[in-house]
Design goal:
Layout: H1 2-16, E1 19-21, H2 24-27, E2 42-50, H3 61-66, E3 76-85, E4 92-96, E5 102-106, E6 112-117, H4 119-138, E7 144-149, H5 150-159, E8 163-167, E9 171-173, E10 178-180, E11 183-187, H6 189-197, H7 206-226, H8 233-246, E12 247-250, H9 255-264, E13 273-277, E14 280-285, E15 291-295, H10 297-308, H11 312-319
Parallel strand pairs: 1-12, 2-7, 4-13
Antiparallel strand pairs: 2-3, 3-4, 5-6, 7-12, 8-11, 9-10, 14-15
Helix pairs in contact: 1-9, 5-6, 5-8, 6-7, 10-11
């Protein structure tokens, strides 16, 4: 009993150390946001932050998020997804949105700023602009926002002792100069980070990268939920410390909220986690010549409605969980 109480106290203290930044609830006008659902479901928006080749001129992700004034271009959201957690807390649905999706962009006040690639929302207008853009695209209220530094991602994979993934085909990533060979491989640290970042060498570009990210997250969740990581106190402690060092959340998402949510979902297995990708329409080019992706408007609306109505399993039975094939000029910028 004392040991359990000590670990609970340690957990509370660690979660209380997670960095908190000024979130959308503090900055966005309520009239510019979708209404909250009547049930107790949750939508948590996620961003994989990357401060670029120059490491953000020495500014960390935490420092950029905590600054009084957002600096456009300092951080990029290389990974865009949200997790929907139903009211019964018995499942989780992770929906990825390609970063080249060409959508209406909204600023930190929730005001429209024209069309651009969706990752421009975070880079240009920060956490609140990112949230407003996703909310206006989906019509779904994002209850919280969590940002993880991709550099810190390698710490988490190392803390877990590596994650085994299956690489379906051999290919060479020219941008990172890495040869990936078909078969099972245990990834951690820099190698794990390189795997989830890779977008060159395969025909699908960013869409294949989304598939790899989902593949890695699926394997990581299987290890965490099904292979006893939470009962291995040494591994759990290392993983928790890595998460706390590299995660930032909105100021309305307290350590107590995170602990309560985790405890409410403690009976889940990896089979209860479903990965989806926003339905894709066709490739195209922006007025400036950049390659873009247009989402399938009709099927996207079906997905957003399914999330709102807690009918995602019905959506998957009808459409599947893949993004679909795209038409048009294929390109990677």
């Amino acid at each position: 009993m004392l040991a359990a109480g000590g670990w609970l106290l340690y957990l509370n203290n660690q979660l209380g150390d997670i960095d908190a930044f000024l979130g959308p609830d503090s900055t966005l006008a309520e009239e510019n946001r979708p209404q909250r659902p009547d049930n107790n479901s949750l939508n948590i928006l996620l961003a994989g932050a990357d401060n670029g080749e120059n490491d953000g001129d020495g500014v960390s992700t935490e420092e950029a998020l905590d600054a009084e004034t957002w600096q456009p271009g300092l951080l990029r959201s290389d990974t865009i997804m949200f997790v929907h957690i139903p009211a019964n807390r018995k499942a989780a649905y992770l929906v990825s949105i390609p970063r080249d999706s060409y959508v209406n962009i909204y600023d930190e006040n929730g005001e429209p700023q024209g069309k651009d690639k969706i990752n421009a929302a975070f880079s240009t207008y920060g956490p609140s602009g990112y949230t407003a853009t996703i909310e206006q695209l989906t019509g779904l209220r994002m209850d919280h926002l969590a940002v993880i530094d991709w550099t810190g991602f390698k710490e988490i994979s190392t803390a877990l002792g590596g994650v085994e993934v299956y690489i379906p085909e051999t290919f060479y990533d020219s941008s990172q100069r890495i040869q990936w060979n078909e078969g099972y491989e245990t990834l951690e640290g820099d190698t794990a980070l390189a795997y989830v970042r890779t977008r060159y060498g395969l025909e699908g570009g960013d869409f294949d990268r989304i598939a790899r990210q989902q593949n890695f997250l699926r394997a990581m969740m299987e290890k965490m939920l099904d292979q006893g990581v939470f009962s291995d106190l040494f591994t759990f402690k290392n993983m928790l410390q890595a998460v706390v060092r590299n995660l930032s959340v909105d100021d309305g998402f307290s350590g107590g909220d995170i602990r309560g949510l985790a405890l409410s979902m403690r009976g889940m297995s990896s089979d209860d986690v479903t990965f989806l990708t926003a339905p894709l329409g066709k490739y195209g080019r922006s007025s400036g010549g950049a390659s873009i992706v247009r989402l399938d408007g009709q099927q996207s609306e079906a997905l957003w409605d399914a999330v709102a109505e807690e009918e995602i399993d019905d959506y998957v039975r009808r459409y599947g969980d893949e993004a679909g094939e795209l038409e048009g000029d294929r390109g990677v910028d």
